[in-house]
């Protein structure tokens, strides 16, 4: 007989290492596809809202003092957030109110969204009240899509006089 028999020796330890390495490579490829695939969109692109340009106010009450939060918007961006009537008495009674609105405003300018705002650990209650007042002012500025997309047609019928 001329056939030569070959014997192959496989070590189980090497097979296990090879299988684990192959699974990790496949997992990495799937993870990269999910993270950077065609369905991935940036939050800043999806958070594009439409507003009626102008300056809108909302009132918030702190210790029997009414403060007006003023939000200025153009057609697609929130441009300015500030207190309209903040005086020394209020800043003395609430020293964290001005830094809180500045921190919230900076976050809103960056993301153009009220949902991604992280409240301050120093004054969470005050920050939440300010955020609610900003949300009310932005809701006043938001374009009502159903009203904006409706086109009113008025049809005049000639009246018949007999």
What does the model show?
The chain has a domain at 54-143: Sufe protein. Chain: A. The protein starts with 11 loop residues before the first helix and ends in a 13-residue tail after the last helix. The chain is an alpha+beta fold and 162 residues long. Helix content is 45%, strand content 15%. Helix 4 (97-111) packs across helix 5 (124-141). It is elongated and about 105 Å long. Strand 2 (65-73) and strand 3 form a beta hairpin. Residues 43-47 and 147-160 have low confidence and may be disordered. It has 6 helices and 3 strands, in the order ααβββαααα. A 3-stranded antiparallel β-sheet has the order 1-2-3, covered by helices on one side.
Q: What is the topological layout?
A:
Blueprint: H1 12-36, H2 43-46, E1 54-62, E2 65-73, E3 78-83, H3 88-93, H4 97-111, H5 124-141, H6 145-149
Antiparallel strand pairs: 1-2, 2-3
Helix pairs in contact: 4-5
How much helicity do the residues have? Answer: 40-55%
| Tally of DSSP helical segments | 6
CATH architecture of the domain at 54-143: Alpha-Beta Complex
Using the coordinates shown, work out and report the CATH topology of the domain at 54-143: Sufe protein. Chain: A
Shape: elongated
List low-pLDDT spans.
43-47, 147-160
In CATH's first tier, which class of the domain at 54-143 applies?
A: Alpha Beta
Overall SS class = alpha+beta
With strands numbered from the N-terminus, the spatial order across the biggest sheet is: 1-2-3
Transmembrane segments: 15-36
Keywords: Membrane, Transmembrane, Transmembrane helix
Protein name: FMN-binding domain-containing protein
């Amino acid at each position: 007989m001329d056939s030569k028999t070959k014997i192959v020796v496989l070590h189980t330890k090497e097979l296990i290492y090879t299988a684990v390495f192959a699974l990790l490579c496949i997992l990495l490829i799937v993870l990269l596809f999910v993270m950077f695939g065609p369905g991935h969109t940036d939050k800043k692109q999806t958070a594009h809202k439409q507003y009626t340009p102008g300056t809108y106010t909302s009132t918030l009450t702190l210790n029997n003092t009414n403060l007006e939060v003023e939000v200025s918007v153009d057609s697609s961006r929130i441009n300015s957030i500030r207190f309209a009537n903040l005086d020394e008495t209020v800043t003395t009674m609430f020293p964290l109110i001005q830094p809180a609105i500045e921190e919230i405003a900076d976050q809103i300018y960056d993301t153009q969204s009220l949902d991604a705002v992280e409240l301050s650990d120093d004054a969470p209650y005050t920050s939440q009240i300010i955020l609610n007042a900003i949300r009310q002012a932005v809701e006043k500025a938001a374009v009502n899509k159903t009203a904006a997309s409706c086109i009113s047609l008025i049809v005049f019928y000639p009246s018949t006089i007999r």
